[in-house]
From TrEMBL, chains A, B, C, D:
It comes from Pirellula staleyi (strain ATCC 27377 / DSM 6068 / ICPB 4128) (Pirella staleyi). Residues 1-66 form the DAHP synthase ferredoxin-like domain. It holds the Pfam family DAHP_synth_1. NCBIfam families: DAHP_synth_Bsub, PRK08673.1, PRK12595.1. This is Phospho-2-dehydro-3-deoxyheptonate aldolase. GO terms for biological process: aromatic amino acid family biosynthetic process. SUPFAM superfamilies: Aldolase (SSF51569). One of its GO terms (molecular function) is aldehyde-lyase activity. Keywords: Transferase.
Amino acid sequence: MIVVMDKGATPDQIKHMAERVESLGLKSHVIQGTERTVIAAIGEKRAEMKESLASGPGVEDVVPILAPYKVASREVKKEPTQVVVRDLKVGAGMVGVMAGPCSVESEEQIITTARAVKAAGATALRGGAFKPRTSPYSFQGMKEAGLKLLAAAREETGLAIVTEVMSTEDVELVAKYTDVLQVGARNMQNYRLLEAVGQTRTPVLLKRGPSATMEEFLLAAEYILNEGNPNVMLCERGIRTFEAHTRFTLPLASVPYLHHKTHLPVVIDPSHGTGHTYLVPDMAVASVAAGCDGLILEVHPDPERAMSDGYQSLNIPQFEETMKRCRAVATAVGKTLS
Amino acid sequence: MIVVMDKGATPDQIKHMAERVESLGLKSHVIQGTERTVIAAIGEKRAEMKESLASGPGVEDVVPILAPYKVASREVKKEPTQVVVRDLKVGAGMVGVMAGPCSVESEEQIITTARAVKAAGATALRGGAFKPRTSPYSFQGMKEAGLKLLAAAREETGLAIVTEVMSTEDVELVAKYTDVLQVGARNMQNYRLLEAVGQTRTPVLLKRGPSATMEEFLLAAEYILNEGNPNVMLCERGIRTFEAHTRFTLPLASVPYLHHKTHLPVVIDPSHGTGHTYLVPDMAVASVAAGCDGLILEVHPDPERAMSDGYQSLNIPQFEETMKRCRAVATAVGKTLS
Amino acid sequence: MIVVMDKGATPDQIKHMAERVESLGLKSHVIQGTERTVIAAIGEKRAEMKESLASGPGVEDVVPILAPYKVASREVKKEPTQVVVRDLKVGAGMVGVMAGPCSVESEEQIITTARAVKAAGATALRGGAFKPRTSPYSFQGMKEAGLKLLAAAREETGLAIVTEVMSTEDVELVAKYTDVLQVGARNMQNYRLLEAVGQTRTPVLLKRGPSATMEEFLLAAEYILNEGNPNVMLCERGIRTFEAHTRFTLPLASVPYLHHKTHLPVVIDPSHGTGHTYLVPDMAVASVAAGCDGLILEVHPDPERAMSDGYQSLNIPQFEETMKRCRAVATAVGKTLS
Amino acid sequence: MIVVMDKGATPDQIKHMAERVESLGLKSHVIQGTERTVIAAIGEKRAEMKESLASGPGVEDVVPILAPYKVASREVKKEPTQVVVRDLKVGAGMVGVMAGPCSVESEEQIITTARAVKAAGATALRGGAFKPRTSPYSFQGMKEAGLKLLAAAREETGLAIVTEVMSTEDVELVAKYTDVLQVGARNMQNYRLLEAVGQTRTPVLLKRGPSATMEEFLLAAEYILNEGNPNVMLCERGIRTFEAHTRFTLPLASVPYLHHKTHLPVVIDPSHGTGHTYLVPDMAVASVAAGCDGLILEVHPDPERAMSDGYQSLNIPQFEETMKRCRAVATAVGKTLS
């Protein structure tokens, strides 16, 4: 950690800050520059130290040198983590594909979709039973009835199930039915929920919040890992920017960046990441080329009649075609799709 | 709602979409432009209709005309809502001031601060007992012990208490001690929590999420109002943008914009909105000039030793000086501060 | 164009606005909704009409239906435009690769690089002679001497030359030496410069400004096309967002989006789009998979000693390896690289 | 400057980088942390050094300590700069008000406006003669005829004239007529233009680009100052963010931030900063409260018929009312308006 002093900082202020650094159990190291003095603080940092030093007299800035996440860090664990549940394999060379409707709507809808996505090569079925909706007047999901339909679809097809959990009080219920607990973008910093899913041993798909920095994203994963659940998949689903021609902006550089910083696998969601059906296939293919470890895609047998997200869902033939293209590119970059 | 057809949409597609509009219980009205056809859909909309129509064949876009929030809308209730609890009055000409430390740390700290901010003119004491922290390794708050200290400070000074609730299972506990339930920015779209605070009758301070649009913000308020709790204060605390010289970007135009759209009072948080002590006073003053109905400010007797947010806290003399300046400007713009 | 009236708009205001629409030479069409009235304005719009109507009495909003660009639009020209100069082919199934240093620094540097990138399969050499630099104290380029070295490198290798022009008064000079005129991101809305390059017949590589919307980007291209120069390549080089772990955020969905809206070819710049050497190869590969028509890449024989942008440049072996991977993916998606 | 080495950097890499630092004429200072090594580089930096070091082997990051602007810096000149031309005084306690139409449209329009804004207390008249327009099909301004009308309005009222210059070849012409040269947001990084206006001695109003960081903004000012023109006013006119309910997001914290970093005066443009007439007055008042040194406001006698920007212009009575409110707040914060 580097404490940068103001140009006009007095010798007393510099001395005071060096002592503050030592009082926190760190070694201080004063470096006199040509225009300004900095104090290097050496030793094991705690999260609040930076904040504390930043408000000291004569301090202009405190620059951290180390990333604040630990268990998630690639510096701690070099080998990539692979998450495996049923036939779904995500990471370490395998690209898992999770496909299905935004919401579970009926038995026919979910079974039809499950069979079709399995036939096309998906290894997991996604589908929402508890739906976080921007408006209180929107369809909120079928809740437990929806979970039961997902379980029936798994029974029928063998696909692993991925579904969202919105609240600590539902974790036990949802975990009873699902293979992967999804934490949605809006809940990425709902720390109680992160702790609750961290206390299960069910794999977690953690979606990036639309304005979360990479550091905040990895610290959210750290909340889960820190509770003892090592099976965390990071899901990039787009960030909020000034761009309005897409629903969110999908920054695929997250894939190589995260692979550089963490051992956790990286899943891409081109459906939310673009928000328009016609953009999804090209971005799915690009995600595989960028090196992602998994894809999560909204697929609906009749998007025009979907109860949510129809405008960003692929229909079955579109999904089949997308899978073919993704598979060709996976081969070209030395990965195995599903 | 206006359904905009592709330039190349066929007569059959236009006919199909007009029928779809009618099948949703709306009246359709086809308008042939010089280059493209649009279909006006007239009648009572439901939230999912737009999504459904947007994925129709030959549809380029669906443009909503009405805002999706209702109870929060100024069109529904013309007079501004004033939230009153103890001496705190927010809205309708009154500017309430909530001041106090980021975290409750000790009895001495909170009582000292409470007395000082009351003496300077604050009518509510803010302080966190349950703290949402980006890192699992940061101080997480004193929890119930902190709530008890807040209650003691109220006993001592008569100030109303504002404190955050992070989870549905804590709502009852926190509501037992506090006068205002704060829903933090990270939880703005934690819908279960919104419903839970909506089921109490305790006033709610709802913070805007750092990437929430105004529509999402008002729909979050709508979740609370829709459960029957009319006492909602909207708090602008800054949004995430490319700017890195401030912690968040504080868009004060939110004040007149929200006053135009909603009857709910608007509170500004210049501490989180800027993230640096030296920027807080000028922005507090500017907030009052922009017409805000309340201020929430971090104040700590010794910011350098604060367990969180010290770098954006005012010390007591800084707060006193800021209050003087805010009061002068409140008078100049025809408002009453505290 | 749809004029949306306020809920409280009076019959007189509605009548007034309908007349205003007609006075602009458009047909008006009043639609009475259940809660609000809208006026459809039908006919040939001019750019200032929207602005004019938006400030009318009782008007809440004016919603345009048509895109404001014309010559660039795919609605006007269905077949994709291919830009061809020497061996460089960009668009219509061909992926052109422009590679070279940020700045021309010396004869040896540029000739070495030109030979190496040609050997690896590039068909154009990029290199800056006039450099727009954020700081007045940074190296500003070799100017005409640099242009001469680029011409020498072309003589030696046959590669097409791509170099930036910063100012109208340099257009003639730069066009004398180069095969492609690059308009940099900072100058995307320097309309005089756009007009000047539009008056040449030299192909133009137009870079997207870091906060330009797609509409602004296409309208900037329209300035060039409108002067009679049809050879415009659009270059996505990343946008400014809150993300700080990359220099810019590279939104690859621009590729399918632009292909949907315009016939102009789309080039991606993963060097500026990420700002870090280690992220460039994966994003180059992903760009090809997303369907781009060209790549522009910073390559330097000794990045550690580059006079600019070393931290985002590939060295020669890294470029060779990247080209191999891009070629494999191009084949997998049915395109031809260089 | 702090060179941060990778956790896995070898002793050879550390030695190599320390030598590189010394080879650039700096003193190196190696600090062994508990997890990682950093090298402090001490001495007079040049702009390209950071870039060069950042691509060295084993380097994770290079953290600059000093701001790269010099002449603009408050560290170099403590006293605030006041720009004075005719009756317009901007800075050092004086709040100058520049008001007028977006575009000069006719003699009657500009003379009427000039008289009215002068009567209400403005000390400068703004008006565009050369207009940068997003679309090539929009009204591009009256050019020299417009400049002559502005000069006539000055003759009539004595107001100082503020008008935009878009291109180096027009600087001489525009400077012949105007008192203040405005460099627009789109040209903030048109370095040739910055140099050209820097070579005049006419005061410059430099608008912040919508995605410019504060450092880029101050470096753009530095280009002008560095040519010898000390009369630079910085104008915050809003940044591009995800917010769509305003045209741009107006970050008023720029005022105290810039006052902290530079001696140059800070002008706010609430018209472009909000993009809606109804938001302008409150934001003008808030700007004064935030401590700005000047306001630039769009005022038109008949906004509904304005040839540009009518939807964000004040009419005359609105401007008069806004001036009254601004004057009251200026007094309350100890400033003098106009």
